[in-house]
Amino acid sequence: MQIDLCIDKEKSSTEKGRILEHLVAQLLTIQQYEVVETIRVTGMEIDVFAKHKINNSTLLVECKAWESPLPADVISKLLGNVVLRHADQGWLVSTGPLSKDAKGIKSEWENKNDAERAMLSFYTNDRILDLLLNSGKIISSDQVKKKLESKYFADDITLMLTEKKYYWVVPILNNQYGTVSYKMYLMQQMENVLMILIY
Questions:
Q1: Which of 44, 85, 137, 177 could, after both became Cys, cross-link 132 (CB 3.0–4.6 A)?
Q2: CA distances in angstroms from 47 to 23, 63, 97, 146, 163, listed in the order given
Q3: Taking the complete model, does pTM exceed 0.90, yes or no?
Q4: What kind of architecture, by CATH, is found in domain 7-135?
Q5: What is the pLDDT of residues 35-67, one digit of tens each?
Q6: For the chain, which residues make up each domain, given as ranges?
């Protein structure tokens, strides 16, 4: 499954990043963090800064809504910012793929001992979807498929994030006509269905 961010064509790619930042802020608020989105401090911009309400731990979050593979230097820069700002943790949240080198760094980092590993966490599509499911922000794609009552699903179901709502986009194959139709389910109101036919 993948996650796509959708903005009006008149808006900048910065707006796309803000959708992801806002989503991360919502998830952190659920986890008892006080959140500030997009702050500028000497020498850096922080997409999301959070401080835990109970234990006062601090968290810097770098959000990347890129379609191209994320380069390894993004990870190095985030880790440097965590150390420089004396934060307790850093999160890299990315809806796009990691480059080969970035995957290597992620793998190395996640094999460190628990104390070291706690300083940096990686949230790619699967982990973002898990957070959304566990927080109750979305229902599972399997639940959506059951509601659609079709036997011919394509495998590439997508979670589409917009400025205001989240949608599952489910390709349904029509074997009789050789077409694909897309059904979009609004997360908060399962009764509302929008169907777009692609010919």
A1: 137
A2: 12, 6, 19, 37, 16
A3: no
A4: 3-Layer(aba) Sandwich (3.40)
A5: 987 777 766 788 899 999 999 999 999 999 888
A6: 7-135, 141-198
